[in-house]
Specification:
homotetramer, alpha+beta, Chorismate synthase, AroC fold, 25% helix
Chain lengths: 357, 357, 357, 357
């Protein structure tokens, strides 16, 4: 049941890195929505690898085939399924990993959970490749939200120790979000891009990888969207974001920064602006009691560095139960954060659309 | 559906701060487990208010009545329901808040979501008081886990700018966890307690409040516990923790710290120790691919300062749609972090038990 | 998780026959609905025992206490919990049944499932008494539906071999439904009541019991209510009705009668009537493809005879694993069908309201 | 969310009759199970059309492609997805039905529910063709159950007014079940086959169709399988079976026959046989309180006649809102009951496996 998300919008993701195909079924989309497939393709291209020296040289054939759910190009009420064929896989790269697990990856835990029956090739079901179907569903969700006046956009907030200008958490506009998210290197401050790229290339050259932080905002979400307790927006968004490989932290608004604040500083004061209730700061990231308060939704997700690195590491042989050195060959991203930007947007869009329906 | 959590263990929480009662139903507990009610009472007492000048002077009558689910003192397979009567409530304290919402609280979002039909007294369904039934369920879960060799314990990692010594993420033992969690002021480094208390009292004196961070660990969880994707341990734990009022951030292992690491530093190297696969660091907080790897589970939750403060704040009148000043009277914790320690333990225990069953 | 039903309206039922109390939590009710508690009381009274020689002489104190979910008498968005205290129980009546299970009851299966830890008194969690909380939730659902122009009503269609006039499946009106359901002996044809009562009394006199059929209709449900596949109205209604103790069959419209029909006879022809699409017969019971077609919803549930009878029966001793005779003493209904009429209405109302929200 | 079933085993079905493909995702299968694809192919062939004059002459290309979920031919823990391409469709046959709905079919209700955006071709998402993916999942479930000593088999109990010998509800063996289910015309009493075929051909010749009843049994299910209330075996099985197109009634054991019984007759007496607790009759169909009692599970499902018939029927024009005659052309089964036998087995197997895991 692990691969199904949502209450009113159900997202079921399937596939392994090297299986015949991967895909997603979305049940509960409003009927009659015409999908802009060109726009969806551009969105998926943002996640696709192989475009620059910053990403893995693998070429994933991310052409989506919709098996069902559409009639005359529009959603028809029935579940929508989109699949992507896996091609250009080199399973041989992974032959050793079933016995000698990569530190930081799910090789070992999957082997124990499934008693040696897991698919180890390319990380199997745990591969970052599984974010492609998430982006199919999320790309559609983004279009539906946009039609309802809700815009979701993200940027690279941090790579290693290089940080971008944070979003203006009170005044960020839909237009700014789209501008930033539309960049080939999505940062608010373009001057910082080269420093980030340098950090990635330095790691790559060292056979290493780097982590980072993605900040995502959503504007236009109606006040009152969300639910208390376990279906609060924070719970919904976090359970979705932590399902994205490599995410190790999620925070809303001032997040961990709240811990060192006083109430008088952290509370977001109310005011009337343009005949609407607004707040003059946004330390709560647009969410109070799990429910949207009309301010921009602000969430940050921390990504650990790609675990697959060329540098030799300490591992073990599971069959011999003895220590063993491991150097991971194959083609791996020195930094997944860039490609993860649309993934975070997709995840946020799906969680919000589910809460909104 | 917002008040129901879990897959195999279903937890349904109900109540408002000033309704006749609050409570919890737990379905799916293993049959034949004898609950140690004295131990449960001690656990609930850790969350109870009114014990020290650091907490609210309200006296909540947290005596639990089990309506069902037990037979001869042991779980009997049927759902278990525990309720607590609400007494000593002073609804008059909250008369104004339906129109003039407290900054940082759910007053406004609840009013919009439920179109003015919400129960505004004492924060209604959004009150921190609802963590009492969570602790009933969690206290039982802790006992069941303990019988299976799994120990969960938490400490105050930070109050405002004062920080405790972090848990030893590789070597923390069940005994240490119990010792720390059992303290009246649960910190690892007792020398820091007075500085934390001073921070709280300073805020209280100023009519203000402070936030903090709670760190929680679980040891003994079998390798392989958890699931991929949306049912990963991080997703399960985060969706539970973000349902606890005031939590604005959740991270595992090195969490946001991973962002500035390189892979060679963040990856936890494997080794064979005592004939078992272990890691020599624990930046992943015991979780890889959503599944436990046998190392201590480590999670941190950031709590914002209590939003109800005596200092005058900017708010609005919802009926007049104009700005209005607000000073919150009534009895409020200057810092909820101390009382939230057992709440975090309860939340973590419930999420882990659900994953384990 | 067995005790939770619903998608948008979540119903969680708890309790055992002889535990301190039983109850129900309903999450997802629309906020701002004022419950008519007098009407709810009358509805619950229809299910209550002890009124006539046809029912068990037990007096169940079915006074409902609402612990939460209401504010100023109206639903407030938070989950609503209603409980009933168990009084007047005589656990001694059941002392023997843990070892010597009643044929036709859940004594044996519960003992195996929960490994001897089940609560055997009064049937424990499997008692018909658990239909009281279902009626609390259902009674509220009936009121909400009624406000939306949807009326649900049932009658005794059969007791042993005595049958009532079936509902007019095309033309039954809300008024007729209310008239029939409001009777102390709810049958369409009052002349048949005495024959049904005679059948019950004859069985009672013989230390035996009788079964029957309840037919339920709902009018006013908007066309398009329901979903395909597993959330079709038939699936939703059946999974709810089979949760009512003693139900062994459920059919819609012509039901099992469809099996011997031809398509030309079973298909319900369409026509335009009063500017609306209607059908001239209703063999499909108002449901096509799991979705309401605007005709009356018609469902029938078959109830087996009460398993607890005074006549000596063949059973076994589970401890000795040998055959043993059993005569069940205590106070039992010779026929639960009369009291089950409001239970079926409650079940149908809950399933329809969940589908409608 | 309508297309997802199950608790521990999640089945997600997708597709429309004339979309590019249809399929199923199954999440929660035990890892390491080697699927016998030849056996699965034979099972699917039992459902496939076009084999005899009794079935539709359409040739559905029911070759399954497994996109994922397998590694070296065995389940690998990740969700398993199987798809079937839709070929040989003639959408032109259905051009008129979007405006002039077929009586007895979901054309009208789908149009209202989805506001005219539904896929009307071939019945869209409501087509009987969607039972093919159910059979993929169910065929695998049957193999897993068989390995655990649980056999599921069904037969045609009735076609129009011709009835087969019922299963021996106490003594039916796994071997007998397999023998009957393995027949090309699955009836217990072969002498009755020609009469059933004659009934079908007579209807076909008249441009009409006939209904029937399928009886299914499962032997070997461990005592204690199942849950109380809403997750009782009856609720689980019924919600699955009513999701099969054309099912209008479901009963267990004596089912509706219980209504005219007395308790002394309906209760199944216990006895010790072969050192096990057994019953000497099986009016409860192997289920007490929603939980298996070790006797054969017995369920019957009533199928209405295929709604698509050549005979002219009364319908309406939805665009003109006036009465209109309709004669359905195209290729339709005069009786779906024969092909539905494996579908019922698949449905029962999936529900039981989910309860068992």
């Amino acid at each position: 049941m692990a691969s199904i998300y949502g209450n009113k919008l159900k997202i079921s993701i399937f596939g392994q890195s090297h299986s015949a195909g991967i895909g997603v079924t979305v049940d509960g989309l409003p009927a009659g929505f015409s999908i802009d497939t060109a726009q969806l393709g551009q969105f998926l291209a943002r996640r696709a690898p192989g475009k620059s020296p910053l990403a893995t040289p693998r070429r994933e054939g991310d052409e989506v085939e919709f098996l069902c759910g559409l009639y005359n190009g529009a959603t028809c009420g029935a579940p929508l399924t989109g699949i992507i064929r896996n091609t250009n896989t080199r399973s041989g790269d992974y032959a050793n990993l079933a016995d000698c697990p990569r530190p930081g990856h799910a090789d070992y835990t999957a082997a124990v959970k499934w008693n040696g029956h897991q698919d180890p090739t390319g990380g199997g079901h745990f591969s970052g490749r599984l974010t492609a179907p998430l982006c199919i569903a999320g790309g559609i969700a983004l279009q539906i939200l946009e039609k309802q006046g809700i815009t979701v956009g993200a940027h690279i907030a941090q790579i290693e120790n290089v940080t971008d200008t944070p979003f203006d958490d009170v005044n960020i506009s839909a237009k700014e979000l789209k501008t930033i998210a539309g960049k080939s290197f999505p940062v608010a401050n373009d001057n910082i891009a080269s420093a980030m790229e340098a950090a990635i290339l330095a790691a790559k050259k060292a056979g290493d990888s780097v982590g980072g932080i993605i900040e995502c905002a959503a504007v236009g979400l109606p006040v009152g969207t969300g639910d208390p307790m376990f279906d609060g927006l924070e719970s919904r968004l976090a359970s979705m974001l932590f399902a994205v490989p490599a995410v190790k932290g999620v925070e809303f608004g001032a997040g961990f920064g709240c811990a060192s604040m006083r109430g008088s500083q952290c509370n977001d004061p109310y005011c009337i602006r343009d005949d609407a209730v607004r707040t003059t700061s946004n330390n709560n990231g647009g969410i109070l009691g799990g429910i949207a308060n009309g301010m921009p939704i602000l969430v940050r997700a921390a990504f650990k560095p790609t675990p697959s690195i060329a540098i030799e590491q300490d591992s073990v042989s599971l069959s011999k139960m003895e220590n063993q050195k491991l150097a991971v060959h194959g083609r791996h991203d020195p930094c997944i954060v860039i490609r993860a930007v649309p993934v975070v947007e997709a995840a946020v869009a799906l969680a919000l659309l589910d809460a909104l329906l």
